[in-house]
Amino acid sequence: MPDAASHRPRRVIVIGGSSGIGAAIAARCRAEGHRVVCAQRRAGATDTVRLDLREPFASINGALEAAVRMLGGLDWLVVSGGTAGYQESAHGAALKQARAEERRTGDRPLDRYLEVAEETMRTSAIGPILALEAAFRFLERPPHDPEPSRALLIGSTITQAPPPDLAWYAAAKAAAQVAYLGLARRMARHGVRVNVLATGWARTPMTEAIAPAKLTKILRAVALGRMAEPEEIADAAYAVLAGSAYFAGDTIEVSGGLP
Ligand SMILES: NC(=O)c1ccc[n+]([C@@H]2O[C@H](COP(=O)([O-])OP(=O)(O)OC[C@H]3O[C@@H](n4cnc5c(N)ncnc54)[C@H](OP(=O)(O)O)[C@@H]3O)[C@@H](O)[C@H]2O)c1
Questions:
Q1: Is the CB of 41 under 6 A from ligand 1?
Q2: In this prediction, what percent of the chain has a pLDDT beyond 70?
Q3: What residue numbers bound the domain in which 89 lies?
């Protein structure tokens, strides 16, 4: 049965709504008349709360509680926060340092690689999983509620062909995606539809630091021959959020035709 009341204004939290895909999803939801609070590391602007995915459960829980208070409830949760290491994030800096040290000494600096692994796992796997667990009590509905709540993880197609220099990132994304699909099964019985949008290459601050030669090679594999604009990914995210109530524990791909 389609989600009959899809035009009712929803109360939406976007984690990682400060930039790129998350910002485009927040803008799209607002344009459709929904109320949005962005949970992000640098809060302060209107309709934002501070949330760092690397922090412990209690902190993530507190940030979501504050956002829910601002909205008066929660209907949709979008988890878009993440870091890949292309850009000058803490992860990117740690990875660069580790590689420089390896070139200099000829040894693998395992402590540094552990830093990269922990940073990546906390940001792109553990944090998103804790956020869904923390949001569950706000998203819970009676089992056959005609208007189920929604949770959407912005996943990645990188899990299907992990490049060597992004192995930890791909592993973290895969961990979150698998956990979401597992949790979807438990939460479906409580009126929550949890899904994953596996996204191909998109033109955001995350990918703008990719070297041109590398980018040309990457785009050769994309049928459309270009990256998605963040708004195109937001279109797909919105189609899942506002779309069929039969999406439950599904991975929907938007990749411009990756093999
Ligand atoms: N771009 C692509 O090609 C692509 C492809 C597949 C999947 N994705 C996924 O799409 C999502 C969004 O990425 P994007 O491409 O839009 O990149 P982006 O523009 O760099 O946005 C990343 C977002 O994640 C937030 N973030 C980073 N670390 C965080 C932390 N510790 N706690 C909370 N928020 C944090 C950033 O917030 P700050 O402002 O605080 O830094 C920012 O809002 C990510 O999950 C990424 O894995 C992207």
A1: yes
A2: 95
A3: 11-254
